[in-house]
Design a protein that fits this description.
Elements: H1 8-12, H2 14-21, E1 30-31, H3 34-37, E2 54-56, H4 61-73, E3 77-81, E4 97-101, E5 108-112, E6 117-120, H5 126-133, E7 138-139, H6 152-158, H7 165-168, E8 175-181, E9 187-191, H8 202-206, E10 215-222, E11 224-225, E12 229-237, H9 240-252, E13 259-264, H10 265-275, E14 285-293, H11 295-311, E15 314-319, H12 323-334, H13 336-340, E16 346-349, E17 352-353, H14 359-373, E18 377-381, E19 387-388, E20 390-394, H15 401-418, H16 437-440, H17 443-456
Parallel strand pairs: 2-4, 3-4
Antiparallel strand pairs: 1-2, 5-6, 6-10, 7-11, 8-9, 8-10, 12-14, 12-15, 13-14, 13-18, 16-20, 17-19, 18-20
Helix pairs in contact: 9-11, 9-14, 14-15
GO molecular function, one term: FAD binding
Protein name: FAD-binding protein
Keywords: FAD, Flavoprotein, Oxidoreductase
Length: 495
């Protein structure tokens, strides 16, 4: 995986750039010490790292605007960063770019219970939004496993999901409005507290844009009333393909659980060793299904799901009887990624999404690919919406192992696309899937996406090297003129 070659002229101006930044924000909000910059050298895709040119920590929308305006005027690249929990390398710094960290913009600005929304700054953590409103019986629905650390600004950038997004939607379904700073320093507002917009859905364009279009400085989120009751079922299967078929059967029956997660044997045992959630260890696959609503509805649906599960080969079913037990059931799943870290020195987390009906086939193929590459794969995923999170175990101390893990991950993602799925469900493209974009999109598709990027960021200074493949068949938006049957510059590498 390559990143753009650093611009030597920009590197030579480092002292000038740092001095200018210190005139735009307080001096201690600019970090240029080589040791201190190491904190920002990577995000959660830790296989790749690069110390940024400098880091700026603005404390207001106006400071963000000032920094962006100066960088655009002076041709300096910018990489936005939230909490650094991105698993796709979306916040990976560049050696010739200023990294703008949003950690100081961490206040809940307004809670509007009448309109069931809250206005927060991008540095507020996902879980903190719920904590701010739960005393009044409300919560924020999207709940990534990293919700204790990940911030709403990063969630917007990646269109993050989570356990309960099957019923309540992804980030894009729970955001009403945004304030954003464009590369030239202009501050714009998209959406608001109302449910409808007029004109183009620019809010929808920005959510999931991975920091390529602007930097979000305020977010208006939907608050939902907490359900009267929620119950979780632990359903064990002797064959993980039976568990996969059960997922499709539950949805086909017209039941939309609040969440439906699937873990394979390795994930179950690793989580149980780590959290002691009470998971059965003798299962090949474990489904966690949560139903919520009024008590009578939950009781009925729990019974329906159990019947469907047993009809699909379930060997055990346990239903939570109180809130403490429900949270314990989920504790293992929430800690699964951390628990898997005990199985190997490193793992590579993939994020692809497939149609639910393809789950059994894809699980078989992943087992085949795992054997072909000689690397174990641990499966933990949002089964209800077909969002896979296979964890490829490897040891980066062994030469070539990272490259082998990447190759296996690439084949898994190509498999997802081949069965009618997509490259990502919630982690984003970043650098991890960047060079696979041509497996999913044609030239015309990518050209349109680049044109949209250029409409917001004509100089291409925001988060360069992410999402779009670095190499292309042409120098300008996919176009190439062939004269006399001769390829121009035949020595250049091309797709």
């Amino acid at each position: 995986m390559d990143m753009p070659t650093p611009d030597l002229a920009t590197l030579a101006r480092r002292a000038e750039i740092v001095a200018a930044l210190r005139t735009l924000v307080t001096a201690d909000s600019v970090i240029d010490d080589p040791v201190a910059l190491r904190v920002f050298e990577s995000d959660a895709l830790t296989a790749y790292h690069q110390v940024p040119l400098a880091t700026v920590l603005p404390a207001s929308t106006e400071e963000v605007a000032a920094v962006l305006r100066w960088c655009t005027t002076n041709g300096v690249k910018v990489v936005p960063r939230g909490a650094g929990t991105s698993l796709s390398g979306g916040a990976l710094p560049l050696a010739d770019a200023v990294l703008i960290g949003m950690s100081k913009l961490s206040r809940v600005l307004e809670i509007d219970y009448d309109n069931r929304c809250a206005v927060v700054q991008p540095g507020v953590t996902n879980l903190a939004i719920t904590r701010a409103v739960e005393a009044r019986g409300f919560y924020y629905a999207p709940d990534p496993s990293s919700q204790i650390a990940c911030t709403i600004g990063g969630n917007v950038a990646e269109n993050s999901g989570g356990v309960h997004c099957l019923k309540y939607g992804l980030t894009t379904n729970n955001i009403l409005g945004l304030e954003m700073v464009l590369p030239d320093g202009e501050i714009v507002r998209l959406g608001g507290k109302g449910m409808g917009d007029s004109g183009y859905d620019l809010r929808g364009v920005v959510i999931g844009s991975e920091g390529l279009l602007g930097i979000v400085t305020q977010v208006t989120v939907r608050m939902l009333p907490a359900p009267q009751v929620a119950r979780a079922l632990l359903i064990g299967f002797g064959d993980i393909e039976d568990a996969a078929r059960c997922v499709a059967a539950v949805i086909a029956a017209g039941i939309i659980p609040a969440g439906m997660e699937l873990m394979d044997r390795a994930a179950v045992n690793a989580s149980e060793d780590f959290v002691h959630a009470g998971y059965p260890r003798d299962v090949a696959g474990l489904l966690i299904v949560e139903l919520d609503g009024v008590p009578a509805e939950c009781d009925f649906l729990c019974g329906e799901v159990e019947n469907i599960a047993r009809g699909n080969g379930a060997t055990s079913v346990a239903t939570s009887t109180n809130e403490t037990e429900r949270l314990r059931f989920w504790a293992g799943r929430k800690a699964a990624f951390a628990a898997a870290g005990r199985l190997a020195p490193d793992y590579f987390c993939i994020d692809g999404t497939i149609p639910r009906r393809e789950l059994p086939h894809v699980l078989r193929e992943m087992t085949r690919l795992s054997g072909e590459y000689g690397l174990p794969v641990v499966n933990v995923f949002h089964a209800g919406d077909g969002n896979l999170h296979p964890l490829i175990l490897y040891d980066s101390n062994e030469p070539g192992m990272l490259e082998t893990a990447e190759a296996l991950g690439g084949d898994i993602l190509r498999l997802c696309v081949a069965v009618g799925g997509v490259l990502t469900g919630e982690h984003g493209v970043g650098v991890e899937k960047r060079d696979l974009m041509c497996d999913m999109f044609g030239d015309d598709d990518l050209d349109q996406q680049r044109a949209l990027k250029a409409a917001f960021d004509p100089a291409g200074l925001l988060n360069p090297g992410k999402v779009f493949p670095l190499l292309h068949r042409c120098a300008e938006m996919g176009r190439m003129h062939i004269h006399g049957g001769k390829l121009p510059f035949p020595d250049l590498p091309r797709f």
